[in-house]
Design a protein that fits this description.
284 residues; alpha+beta; four-stranded mixed β-sheet; 31% strand
Length: 284
């Protein structure tokens, strides 16, 4: 029994930290050094070179198309429509280790994803970093750690919330908007003020409570908790950025009790990290 357990743990450690795989691109890879057509944009997704999780390749999808398998330190490049929302998701759950950690996949389990606005003749540079933010000991990160590859240290201007709206049923909208506003205030701290030239509009597009009891049995659509929010960032009357985040809690069993509430904090943290560089003072 001890030998079997030791063998299982060895497999897990090797899969998490060793025998790294190579990046495989499944769609045509455009040359980023050549001029970009007026009728297209490019997306460049790089994965940070990290020791932790280095053997886990990510199946990367863009608007439901499999782009490729992104290995540690690898890069994928693909064409996209200009002035369009490009939604990116990444799944590593087909691996042995994540199957051990997440349990049996009972049905079609939703994936977390991020959506970014593309611009004509530009390269949308994205970065996947499993350790940004810092890995948590108990509560897993529900949002997808893919961010624009930009220098956030220059973003120091506090913001104010202009509006919080909801596309959902009116009987639940008020509570959801209040929960999102409270989470934003908690996560942003003094970087969220009453009045600022820099504002953010938040729209709740989808929400599902899920069930921790069902997540104890395995990953499934019915058991998953999710929240989808669109963020529109403005400087005065000019829209400077638009993105969508949809974190998902699909596994973890009773460790995820209360996910229907803390999923709002996941959205707030993702928005914060999208805009600002975390510091030690932030505790992130």
């Amino acid at each position: 029994m001890k030998k079997a357990l030791l063998s299982l743990l060895t497999v897990a450690v090797v899969a998490l930290t060793g025998c790294a795989t190579s990046t495989i691109q499944h769609v045509e890879r455009p040359d980023v050094t050549k001029p970009i057509s007026k009728t297209e944009s490019l997306v460049q997704l790089k994965r940070e070179d990290r020791f932790f999780g280095s053997a886990l390749s990510l199946n990367v999808f863009a608007n439901d198309t499999l782009i490729g398998e992104l290995a540690n330190g690898g890069e994928l490049v693909w064409r996209a429509k200009p002035d369009f929302i490009e939604c990116v998701s990444a799944d590593a759950r087909s691996s042995l280790v994540t199957t051990m950690l997440h349990g049996i996949k009972l049905d079609s389990t939703p994936l977390p994803y991020k959506c970014f606005m593309t611009k004509p003749q530009e390269i949308l540079k994205l970065k996947y970093d499993l350790l940004y933010p810092n890995i948590r000991a108990v509560q897993p990160i529900a949002f997808l750690p893919i961010f624009k590859d930009v220098d956030r240290s220059k973003n120091v201007t506090p913001i104010s919330i202009k509006t919080i709206t909801s596309s959902l049923a009116t009987e639940t909208s008020a509570d959801l908007k209040n929960m999102l506003e409270a989470a934003m205030k908690k996560l942003f701290g003094d970087r969220l003020i009453e009045s600022s030239r820099k504002t953010i509009d938040l729209e709740i597009l989808d929400y599902k409570t899920g069930s921790a009891a069902l997540r104890w049995l395995g990953s499934s659509h019915e058991g998953s908790t999710l929240l989808k929010v669109k963020a529109t960032i403005m400087e005065g009357s000019v829209v400077t950025d638009v993105f969508i985040t949809r974190p998902v809690v699909s596994f973890g069993g009773f460790y995820t009790v209360g996910a229907d509430s803390y999923i709002f904090e996941e959205v707030a943290e993702d928005i914060y990290l999208h805009m600002f560089e975390p510091s030690r003072e932030d505790g992130k």
